[in-house]
Design brief:
Strand content: 25-35%
Order of helices and strands: EEEHEEEHHHEHEHEEHEEEHEH
Number of helices: 9
Distance between the termini: 36 Å
Radius of gyration: 22 Å
Protein backbone atom coordinates (compact mmCIF):
# COMPACT_ATOMS: atom_id res chain seq x y z
CA UNK A 1 0.00 0.00 0.00
CA UNK A 2 1.18 3.50 -0.78
CA UNK A 3 1.93 6.00 1.97
CA UNK A 4 -0.70 8.70 2.39
CA UNK A 5 0.69 10.53 5.42
CA UNK A 6 4.32 10.80 6.49
CA UNK A 7 5.71 12.71 9.48
CA UNK A 8 9.48 12.74 9.95
CA UNK A 9 11.27 14.12 13.01
CA UNK A 10 8.51 16.59 13.91
CA UNK A 11 9.38 18.86 16.81
CA UNK A 12 7.34 21.71 18.24
CA UNK A 13 7.72 24.01 21.25
CA UNK A 14 5.54 26.80 22.59
CA UNK A 15 6.51 29.79 24.71
CA UNK A 16 9.86 31.40 25.42
CA UNK A 17 12.63 31.04 27.97
CA UNK A 18 11.63 29.33 31.21
CA UNK A 19 8.05 29.16 30.03
CA UNK A 20 9.02 27.23 26.92
CA UNK A 21 7.16 23.92 26.60
CA UNK A 22 8.31 21.13 24.31
CA UNK A 23 5.01 19.85 22.90
CA UNK A 24 6.36 17.35 20.35
CA UNK A 25 9.69 15.53 20.39
CA UNK A 26 10.89 13.93 17.16
CA UNK A 27 7.55 12.51 16.05
CA UNK A 28 7.70 9.91 13.26
CA UNK A 29 4.37 8.63 11.96
CA UNK A 30 3.19 6.95 8.79
CA UNK A 31 -0.33 6.12 7.59
CA UNK A 32 -0.86 3.98 4.49
CA UNK A 33 -3.69 4.18 1.98
CA UNK A 34 -6.78 2.39 3.25
CA UNK A 35 -5.46 2.22 6.81
CA UNK A 36 -7.31 3.41 9.91
CA UNK A 37 -4.94 4.68 12.58
CA UNK A 38 -6.11 5.37 16.11
CA UNK A 39 -3.99 8.11 17.70
CA UNK A 40 -4.39 7.94 21.48
CA UNK A 41 -2.95 9.61 24.56
CA UNK A 42 -3.90 11.55 27.67
CA UNK A 43 -4.88 15.19 27.79
CA UNK A 44 -1.98 17.37 26.67
CA UNK A 45 -0.07 14.43 25.19
CA UNK A 46 0.34 16.16 21.81
CA UNK A 47 -2.44 14.63 19.71
CA UNK A 48 -4.17 17.85 18.63
CA UNK A 49 -0.87 19.64 18.03
CA UNK A 50 0.26 16.82 15.75
CA UNK A 51 -2.98 16.97 13.78
CA UNK A 52 -2.78 20.75 13.41
CA UNK A 53 0.76 20.38 12.05
CA UNK A 54 -0.42 17.76 9.55
CA UNK A 55 -3.05 20.22 8.31
CA UNK A 56 -0.60 23.15 8.22
CA UNK A 57 -2.60 25.00 10.88
CA UNK A 58 0.54 25.05 13.03
CA UNK A 59 4.08 25.03 11.67
CA UNK A 60 6.63 22.65 13.25
CA UNK A 61 9.98 23.91 14.51
CA UNK A 62 11.66 21.07 12.70
CA UNK A 63 10.70 18.12 10.53
CA UNK A 64 8.80 17.29 7.34
CA UNK A 65 5.13 16.41 6.78
CA UNK A 66 3.83 15.05 3.48
CA UNK A 67 0.27 14.20 2.40
CA UNK A 68 -0.15 12.09 -0.71
CA UNK A 69 3.49 12.73 -1.55
CA UNK A 70 3.21 16.53 -1.33
CA UNK A 71 4.42 18.95 1.31
CA UNK A 72 1.51 19.51 3.70
CA UNK A 73 1.98 23.29 3.29
CA UNK A 74 0.61 22.92 -0.24
CA UNK A 75 -3.21 23.28 -0.41
CA UNK A 76 -3.27 20.60 -3.11
CA UNK A 77 -2.03 18.03 -0.57
CA UNK A 78 -5.30 18.39 1.34
CA UNK A 79 -7.68 17.85 -1.58
CA UNK A 80 -10.17 15.15 -0.71
CA UNK A 81 -9.37 15.41 3.01
CA UNK A 82 -12.07 16.13 5.61
CA UNK A 83 -11.20 17.32 9.11
CA UNK A 84 -13.13 17.56 12.36
CA UNK A 85 -11.33 19.52 15.11
CA UNK A 86 -11.58 18.58 18.78
CA UNK A 87 -13.68 21.61 19.73
CA UNK A 88 -15.66 21.93 16.52
CA UNK A 89 -18.41 24.51 16.21
CA UNK A 90 -20.30 26.42 13.54
CA UNK A 91 -22.30 29.61 13.09
CA UNK A 92 -25.45 29.16 15.18
CA UNK A 93 -27.57 30.97 12.59
CA UNK A 94 -26.97 28.25 10.00
CA UNK A 95 -29.00 25.08 9.56
CA UNK A 96 -27.50 21.57 9.12
CA UNK A 97 -28.50 21.58 5.45
CA UNK A 98 -26.84 24.96 4.90
CA UNK A 99 -23.66 23.76 6.64
CA UNK A 100 -23.37 20.70 4.42
CA UNK A 101 -24.05 22.66 1.23
CA UNK A 102 -21.51 25.30 2.24
CA UNK A 103 -18.91 22.62 2.88
CA UNK A 104 -19.49 21.10 -0.56
CA UNK A 105 -18.86 24.56 -2.04
CA UNK A 106 -15.66 25.01 -0.01
CA UNK A 107 -14.42 21.66 -1.34
CA UNK A 108 -15.34 22.79 -4.86
CA UNK A 109 -17.77 19.88 -5.22
CA UNK A 110 -20.65 20.45 -7.64
CA UNK A 111 -23.59 18.04 -7.71
CA UNK A 112 -26.88 18.29 -9.56
CA UNK A 113 -28.54 16.44 -6.67
CA UNK A 114 -26.87 18.57 -3.99
CA UNK A 115 -29.88 18.90 -1.66
CA UNK A 116 -30.85 15.22 -1.78
CA UNK A 117 -27.19 14.26 -1.37
CA UNK A 118 -26.89 16.39 1.78
CA UNK A 119 -30.23 15.21 3.12
CA UNK A 120 -29.08 11.61 2.71
CA UNK A 121 -26.08 12.23 4.95
CA UNK A 122 -28.14 14.12 7.50
CA UNK A 123 -30.51 11.17 7.55
CA UNK A 124 -27.66 8.72 8.07
CA UNK A 125 -26.56 10.72 11.10
CA UNK A 126 -30.10 10.81 12.42
CA UNK A 127 -30.70 14.55 12.04
CA UNK A 128 -32.68 14.89 8.80
CA UNK A 129 -35.73 15.95 10.81
CA UNK A 130 -33.91 19.11 11.98
CA UNK A 131 -32.23 19.88 8.63
CA UNK A 132 -33.86 23.31 8.44
CA UNK A 133 -33.48 24.34 12.08
CA UNK A 134 -30.75 26.70 13.23
CA UNK A 135 -28.00 24.86 15.06
CA UNK A 136 -27.65 27.58 17.71
CA UNK A 137 -30.11 25.69 19.90
CA UNK A 138 -28.61 22.26 19.30
CA UNK A 139 -27.16 20.07 22.04
CA UNK A 140 -23.47 19.14 21.91
CA UNK A 141 -24.35 15.73 20.50
CA UNK A 142 -26.59 17.14 17.76
CA UNK A 143 -23.89 19.66 16.83
CA UNK A 144 -21.32 16.85 16.66
CA UNK A 145 -23.55 14.78 14.37
CA UNK A 146 -24.01 17.78 12.07
CA UNK A 147 -20.29 18.45 11.80
CA UNK A 148 -19.50 14.79 11.23
CA UNK A 149 -22.16 14.69 8.50
CA UNK A 150 -20.45 17.58 6.71
CA UNK A 151 -17.18 15.61 6.73
CA UNK A 152 -18.80 12.52 5.19
CA UNK A 153 -20.87 14.53 2.70
CA UNK A 154 -17.77 15.54 0.72
CA UNK A 155 -17.00 11.81 0.27
CA UNK A 156 -13.36 12.22 1.33
CA UNK A 157 -10.52 9.90 0.51
CA UNK A 158 -9.10 10.64 3.97
CA UNK A 159 -10.67 11.60 7.30
CA UNK A 160 -8.80 13.27 10.15
CA UNK A 161 -11.03 13.34 13.21
CA UNK A 162 -10.04 14.76 16.60
CA UNK A 163 -12.33 13.24 19.25
CA UNK A 164 -15.24 12.47 16.88
CA UNK A 165 -17.19 10.71 19.65
CA UNK A 166 -17.10 13.69 22.00
CA UNK A 167 -20.50 14.72 23.37
CA UNK A 168 -22.38 11.81 21.83
CA UNK A 169 -24.86 9.72 23.79
CA UNK A 170 -24.55 5.88 23.60
CA UNK A 171 -26.87 5.68 20.58
CA UNK A 172 -25.01 8.45 18.78
CA UNK A 173 -21.64 6.87 19.54
CA UNK A 174 -22.79 3.51 18.17
CA UNK A 175 -24.15 5.17 15.02
CA UNK A 176 -20.89 7.05 14.41
CA UNK A 177 -18.73 3.99 15.08
CA UNK A 178 -20.79 2.03 12.55
CA UNK A 179 -20.27 4.77 9.93
CA UNK A 180 -16.52 4.88 10.66
CA UNK A 181 -16.36 1.11 10.18
CA UNK A 182 -18.26 1.45 6.92
CA UNK A 183 -15.78 4.11 5.73
CA UNK A 184 -12.94 1.76 6.63
CA UNK A 185 -14.56 -1.18 4.78
CA UNK A 186 -14.89 0.99 1.68
CA UNK A 187 -11.12 1.55 1.66
CA UNK A 188 -11.05 5.01 3.23
CA UNK A 189 -7.96 6.26 5.05
CA UNK A 190 -8.40 7.68 8.55
CA UNK A 191 -6.45 9.14 11.45
CA UNK A 192 -8.56 9.74 14.53
CA UNK A 193 -8.21 10.35 18.25
CA UNK A 194 -10.54 9.20 21.00
CA UNK A 195 -10.52 8.63 24.74
CA UNK A 196 -13.03 5.79 24.25
CA UNK A 197 -10.47 3.00 23.84
CA UNK A 198 -13.02 0.27 23.20
CA UNK A 199 -14.32 2.16 20.17
CA UNK A 200 -10.77 2.79 18.93
CA UNK A 201 -10.08 -0.94 19.14
CA UNK A 202 -13.24 -1.76 17.17
CA UNK A 203 -12.45 0.65 14.31
CA UNK A 204 -8.66 1.00 13.99
CA UNK A 205 -6.23 -1.26 12.15
CA UNK A 206 -3.32 0.20 14.09
CA UNK A 207 -2.91 2.24 17.26
CA UNK A 208 -0.24 4.82 17.98
CA UNK A 209 0.21 5.96 21.60
CA UNK A 210 1.64 9.40 22.30
CA UNK A 211 2.67 10.55 25.77
CA UNK A 212 4.16 13.95 26.64
CA UNK A 213 5.04 14.66 23.02
CA UNK A 214 6.66 11.28 22.27
CA UNK A 215 5.33 8.21 20.49
CA UNK A 216 5.76 5.35 22.95
CA UNK A 217 3.86 2.56 21.18
CA UNK A 218 2.88 1.71 17.61
CA UNK A 219 0.94 -1.54 17.33
CA UNK A 220 -1.57 -3.29 15.11
CA UNK A 221 -4.84 -4.05 16.86
CA UNK A 222 -4.69 -7.60 15.54
CA UNK A 223 -1.41 -8.23 17.35
CA UNK A 224 -3.05 -7.36 20.68
CA UNK A 225 -5.50 -10.22 20.20
CA UNK A 226 -2.77 -12.75 19.48
CA UNK A 227 -0.35 -11.83 22.25
CA UNK A 228 -2.35 -12.58 25.38
CA UNK A 229 -2.08 -16.05 26.96
CA UNK A 230 -5.31 -15.56 28.90
CA UNK A 231 -8.90 -14.92 27.86
CA UNK A 232 -11.98 -13.80 29.75
CA UNK A 233 -14.78 -16.20 28.84
CA UNK A 234 -18.38 -14.91 29.25
CA UNK A 235 -21.05 -17.62 29.19
CA UNK A 236 -24.84 -17.92 29.54
CA UNK A 237 -26.05 -21.03 31.34
CA UNK A 238 -29.37 -22.07 32.86
CA UNK A 239 -27.42 -24.05 35.48
CA UNK A 240 -24.57 -22.83 37.76
CA UNK A 241 -21.11 -23.48 36.35
CA UNK A 242 -18.38 -24.75 38.62
CA UNK A 243 -15.23 -22.57 38.73
CA UNK A 244 -17.12 -19.68 37.04
CA UNK A 245 -17.98 -16.37 38.68
CA UNK A 246 -21.72 -15.66 38.65
CA UNK A 247 -22.65 -12.36 36.99
CA UNK A 248 -26.02 -10.65 36.48
CA UNK A 249 -28.84 -13.08 35.61
CA UNK A 250 -27.66 -16.42 34.23
CA UNK A 251 -24.30 -15.13 33.00
CA UNK A 252 -20.99 -16.53 34.21
CA UNK A 253 -17.38 -15.44 33.71
CA UNK A 254 -13.99 -17.06 34.01
CA UNK A 255 -10.39 -16.33 33.06
CA UNK A 256 -8.82 -19.19 31.13
CA UNK A 257 -5.50 -19.98 29.45
CA UNK A 258 -5.35 -19.89 25.65
CA UNK A 259 -4.28 -23.55 25.46
CA UNK A 260 -7.42 -24.63 27.35
CA UNK A 261 -9.86 -22.35 25.51
CA UNK A 262 -10.91 -24.66 22.67
CA UNK A 263 -11.58 -27.66 24.90
CA UNK A 264 -13.47 -25.55 27.40
CA UNK A 265 -15.76 -24.08 24.73
CA UNK A 266 -16.56 -27.60 23.50
CA UNK A 267 -17.30 -28.75 27.07
CA UNK A 268 -19.60 -25.79 27.70
CA UNK A 269 -21.51 -26.33 24.46
CA UNK A 270 -22.05 -30.00 25.41
CA UNK A 271 -23.53 -28.75 28.70
CA UNK A 272 -25.97 -26.55 26.79
CA UNK A 273 -24.24 -23.28 27.71
CA UNK A 274 -23.99 -20.39 25.24
CA UNK A 275 -20.63 -18.70 24.64
CA UNK A 276 -21.25 -14.94 24.77
CA UNK A 277 -17.68 -13.73 24.27
CA UNK A 278 -14.02 -14.72 24.62
CA UNK A 279 -11.98 -11.57 25.06
CA UNK A 280 -8.17 -11.54 25.38
CA UNK A 281 -6.89 -10.11 28.64
CA UNK A 282 -4.32 -8.17 26.63
CA UNK A 283 -6.34 -5.43 24.93
CA UNK A 284 -5.85 -1.83 23.93
CA UNK A 285 -6.57 -0.49 27.40
CA UNK A 286 -4.01 -2.76 29.07
CA UNK A 287 -1.45 -1.98 26.35
CA UNK A 288 -2.05 1.76 26.77
CA UNK A 289 -1.55 1.71 30.53
CA UNK A 290 1.44 -0.65 30.42
CA UNK A 291 3.12 1.62 27.84
CA UNK A 292 2.57 4.83 29.83
CA UNK A 293 3.54 3.17 33.13
CA UNK A 294 6.74 1.81 31.58
CA UNK A 295 7.61 5.29 30.34
CA UNK A 296 7.07 6.67 33.85
CA UNK A 297 9.18 3.91 35.46
CA UNK A 298 11.99 4.63 32.99
CA UNK A 299 12.17 8.12 34.45
CA UNK A 300 11.07 9.95 31.29
CA UNK A 301 8.14 11.73 32.95
Amino acid sequence: MSTVLQLENICKSFGQGRKKTEALKSIDLQVSEGEVCGFIGGNGAGKSTTIKIILDLVRPDRGVVTLYGQDSASPNSRRGLAYLPEKATANGLLTPLEILRLNLSLHDIKRTDEISHCMNWLDRFGIASVASKRIGGFSKGMMQRTLLAQCFAVEPRMLILDEPLSGLDPQGRRLVVDLLQEFRSAGGTMLFTSHVLHDVESVADRVVVIDQGEIIANRSCQSLWHEGDKFVLMVWSAKPLESYQAKTGDYYQREINRAELGAEITRLENLGAVIVSAQPVQNLESMFFSSTEKKASDGTQ
